[in-house]
Specification:
Layout: H1 17-26, H2 29-46, H3 48-51, H4 83-119, H5 121-135, H6 139-150, H7 154-180, H8 184-191, H9 196-232, H10 244-251, H11 260-287
Length: 294
C-alpha cells in the first residue's frame, strides 16, 4: 500500500522534516535569543572555577553587604561572600536540577505513556489513574511534600521534581500514541508481523519525539522555578552550597537597605526561565506539523 501524503510527506529539496524544523528554529529570532542566553549560562556554569574571581565560600567580614564595585561586580552578601561568584556557581545547581529532573521525568513519563497508549486495557487504566491522582495536587505543593519526606539535598531535590514532572509527559505521550497507532503505517507494520516493541520504538516514537522535546524545554523552566522555590524554603540544596533560591531567602531581610543582594539571583532566575520558554515556543513553532516550510 502506498503511503498517503499525510503520513509520509514528500521531503522539500531532499531535506528531512527534522532538518526543516531545525532550519525554521534558527530563523526564529526569539527562540534563537533564548538559546543564546541558555548557552551563556551553561558556559558560566561549566567554567565557574575559571570565571569566578573569588572562592564560592570565601568570607570577608570587612566587606559585609558591600555594594557593587570594581572588586565585587554584584556586591557581597551578609557574610562578605562575592555575589557574582555565588550566582555563577548557583547556575550549576539550577541547570543540574532542571535538566536532571526533566531527563528522568521525560524517560519515565514517555515510557509509561507509550506503553499505556499502545497496550491499553488494565495497564492504561492503572497508569492514567495514578497520573490523574498526582495531577490533582498542585505541582509545588507535591514537590514540597516529597522534598520534605526525602530530605533536603541535591539528589533528593532532583528526584522530587522529577516525580511531580512525570504525569504531564505520560499524558502527552499517551495521547500522541493513541493518535499515531490508528494510522496506516502502524497497521501495515502489524500486518507484516513486526513485534509491537519494534512498531512502538521504530515507527511511532520518531513521529512523536518532536512534541516530547518541546514539552521537555517548557518543563525545564518549571523545574528551575521549583528548585528555586524549594531552596528558598530550605528544602533544596543546603548551605554553604550556593543556590539562587537560598540566596533570595537570605537577602529578603535586606531588601530595603541592600537590594542588590536579591536583584542578582532574581534576575538570573528570570533570564533562565524566560530563555527556556522562548526556546520552547521556538521549538513548538518549528516542529508544528501545521507549519509550512518557509
Amino acid at each position: 500500500m502506498d503511503p498517503s501524503p499525510i503520513e509520509q510527506p514528500e521531503p522539500a529539496r531532499g531535506r528531512t522534516l527534522w532538518a526543516r524544523g531545525v532550519t525554521r528554529f534558527f530563523r526564529n529570532r526569539l527562540g534563537l535569543t533564548g538559546l543564546v542566553i541558555l548557552l551563556v549560562f551553561a558556559a558560566l556554569a561549566l567554567l565557574a572555577p575559571v570565571i569566578a574571581p573569588y572562592g564560592v565560600a570565601e568570607v570577608n567580614f570587612s566587606r559585609l553587604r558591600a555594594p557593587p564595585s570594581a572588586d565585587h561586580w554584584l556586591g557581597t552578601d551578609e557574610l562578605g561572600r562575592d555575589t557574582f561568584t555565588r550566582v555563577v556557581y548557583g547556575a550549576r545547581i539550577s541547570l543540574t536540577v532542571g535538566l536532571g529532573s526533566v531527563f528522568i521525568a521525560l524517560f519515565a513519563g514517555s515510557l509509561l505513556g507509550m506503553l499505556a497508549g499502545f497496550l491499553g486495557g488494565w495497564f492504561d487504566e492503572v497508569v492514567m489513574r495514578v497520573m490523574d491522582a498526582m495531577l490533582s495536587l498542585p505541582f509545588l505543593v507535591l514537590a514540597i511534600a516529597l522534598a520534605a519526606i526525602l530530605g533536603p539535598n541535591l539528589q533528593n531535590t532532583i528526584l522530587a521534581i522529577a516525580i511531580v514532572s512525570t504525569p504531564p509527559f505520560a499524558r502527552l505521550t499517551r495521547g500522541q500514541v493513541l493518535s499515531e497507532k490508528e494510522r496506516d503505517y502502524v497497521q501495515a507494520s502489524a500486518a507484516l508481523g513486526a513485534r509491537w516493541t519494534r512498531t512502538l520504538l521504530r515507527h511511532i516514537l520518531p513521529n512523536i519525539l518532536s512534541v516530547i522535546i518541546v514539552q521537555a524545554s517548557l518543563a525545564t523552566a518549571i523545574a528551575v522555578l521549583a528548585e528555586s522555590a524549594l531552596s528558598f524554603l530550605g528544602l533544596g540544596v543546603q548551605p554553604p552550597t550556593p543556590s539562587w533560591g537560598s540566596m533570595l531567602n537570605t537577602s529578603r531581610g535586606y531588601l530595603a537597605t541592600q537590594p542588590w543582594m536579591a536583584f542578582s539571583p532574581g534576575i538570573a532566575i528570570f533570564l533562565v526561565v524566560l530563555a527556556l520558554n522562548l526556546v520552547g515556543d521556538g521549538l513548538r513553532d518549528a516542529f508544528d506539523p501545521r507549519m509550512r516550510p518557509r
